[in-house]
Amino acid sequence: MQVIVNTDNNITLSEETIASITTELESKLAHFSDHLTRLEVHLSDESAGRGTGDDIRCQLEARPENRSPELATDNAATLHAALNGAARKMQQVLESTFGRADQHKGASSMGGVEPR
Question: With a threshold of 0.70, does the pTM exceed it?
Fold first, then answer.
């Protein structure tokens, strides 16, 4: 899984910070790495540097193989909090997406018993 980090003009990240973000997301989404070709991270400061509350936005775009992209977004007061919130939401989205796909591939979750 390739991780690409993008920022707007209001956020400047060092190479060390980008590497840290990449490592953290690879760790949090490791369970899904076989299914994903790319993960794009879009970071922006919606208030252009003015401290107005939850103005740091993190949008994650996961690109599963042979599927439409999945999105998760979170706003928070800090970059770290926005990143963690979006990662948590993305875990839920991917669990739902791939959980449903696994149910369609295998036997029903009712152990082969047809519902009445």
Answer: yes
Report the C-alpha gap between 97 and 62 in whole angstroms.
Answer: 11
Q: Each residue of 35-79: pLDDT tens digit? A: 999 999 999 998 775 666 778 999 999 999 989 999 999 999 999
Sequence-ordered list of residues with C-beta below 8 angstroms from that of 62, at least 6 positions apart, any chain:
29, 32, 36, 38, 39, 69, 70, 71, 72, 90, 93, 94
DSSP helix/strand/coil, 76: strand
Q: What is the DSSP letter of 14?
A: -
What gap in Å lies between CA 34 and CA 65, rounded to an integer? Answer: 9
Tokens in use for 85?
A: 């919130």
Indicate the residue type of 15. Answer: E
